[in-house]
């Protein structure tokens, strides 16, 4: 269980296992990893070095014609042999990103965040729309924790956006993840890290409003004087 993460780290971009999975195995760029976690590319670069992961240099001929551009070759290596994008890239001296681009171009669904045999790591990658959805939810929730109402500016390091019905529920064992349902606004809520760890796994089938209502009740009496409780 090389990539299994039994618990999701609080600052995943500092976690060697997370960085290895995303950067080494799946070949995301530093910028793409930064987007997932709402961090700058330079932050990701710094932590890659700090945890001892060799950063990639330049590659040549990313668009040139070669076996890695052929659908049947990619299907054989990626689907049948279950090689990672990085492993396929190594075979042809191409970057993992180039491989991913060709996989997408041929309509081959990438299994990023879901390595073979990996347990619990399926929540790592939430699909291409995740950064936008994450930003929308934070705006919708007034840029504060929807439960304790701590403002984003004082949350360290940043607000989390929580999947009420867990992301893994939308990732079938043998099919394509349903990112649209996974990241529907009705399934997402902004939480500070403290509320996130406190309420993780709770109330998995309710709306964001209902989740916040129940969380506020659970936070009583700490927030008893909060005027938002007047209607509860
Ligand atoms: Zn909170």
Bound small molecules, by name, code or SMILES, are: zinc ion
- How many extended strands? 2
Return Rg in Å. Answer: 20 Å
Question: What's the main sheet like?
Answer: 2 strands, antiparallel
Helix content: 25-40%
Alpha-carbon distance between the termini?
Answer: 45 Å
Spans of at least 5 consecutive residues with low confidence: 113-123
- The ordered H/E elements are HHHHHHHEHEHH
Structural class of the secondary elements? mainly alpha
Strand content: under 5%
Dominant shape? globular
Number of domains: 3
Mean pLDDT: 81
The order of strands across the largest sheet is 1-2
Helix count from the secondary structure assignment: 10
Can you characterise this structure?
- There is one protein chain.
- The chain has helices at residues 16-25, 30-37, 41-50, 71-80, 85-92, 96-105, 130-140, 179-182, 193-199, 208-219, and strands spanning 160-163, 188-191.
- It has a two-stranded antiparallel ribbon with strand order 1-2.
- The chain folds into 3 domains: 1-56; 67-108, no CATH class; 128-231, no CATH class.
- With 232 residues, the chain is mainly alpha-helical.
- The termini are far apart.
- Residues 145, 147-148, 150, 191-192, 194-195 line the site of zinc ion (ZN).
Topology (SSEs and partners):
Elements: H1 16-25, H2 30-37, H3 41-50, H4 71-80, H5 85-92, H6 96-105, H7 130-140, E1 160-163, H8 179-182, E2 188-191, H9 193-199, H10 208-219
Antiparallel strand pairs: 1-2
Helix pairs in contact: 2-3, 5-6
The protein binds zinc ion (ZN).
Zinc ion binds next to helix 9.
């Amino acid at each position: 269980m090389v990539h299994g993460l039994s618990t999701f780290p609080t600052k995943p971009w500092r976690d060697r296992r997370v960085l290895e999975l995303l950067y080494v195995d799946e070949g995301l760029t530093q910028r793409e990893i930064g987007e997932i976690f709402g961090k700058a590319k330079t932050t990701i670069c710094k932590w890659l070095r700090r945890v001892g992961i060799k950063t990639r240099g330049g590659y040549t001929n990313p668009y040139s014609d070669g076996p890695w551009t052929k659908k049947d070759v990619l299907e054989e290596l990626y689907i049948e042999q279950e090689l990672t994008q990085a492993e396929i890239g190594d075979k042809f001296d191409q970057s993992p990103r180039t491989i991913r681009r060709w996989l997408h171009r041929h309509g081959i669904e990438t299994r990023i965040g879901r390595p073979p045999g990996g347990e619990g790591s399926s929540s790592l990658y939430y699909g291409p729309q995740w950064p936008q959805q994450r930003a929308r939810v934070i705006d919708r929730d007034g840029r504060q924790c929807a439960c304790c109402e701590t403002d984003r500016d004082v949350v360290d390091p940043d607000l989390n956006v929580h999947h009420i019905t867990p992301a893994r529920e939308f990732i079938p064992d043998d099919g394509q993840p349903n990112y649209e349902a996974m990241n529907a606004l009705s399934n997402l809520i902004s939480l500070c890290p403290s509320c996130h760890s406190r309420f993780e796994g709770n109330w998995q089938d309710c709306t964001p409003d209902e989740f916040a209502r129940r969380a506020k009740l659970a936070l009583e009496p700490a927030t008893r004087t909060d005027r938002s409780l007047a209607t509860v």
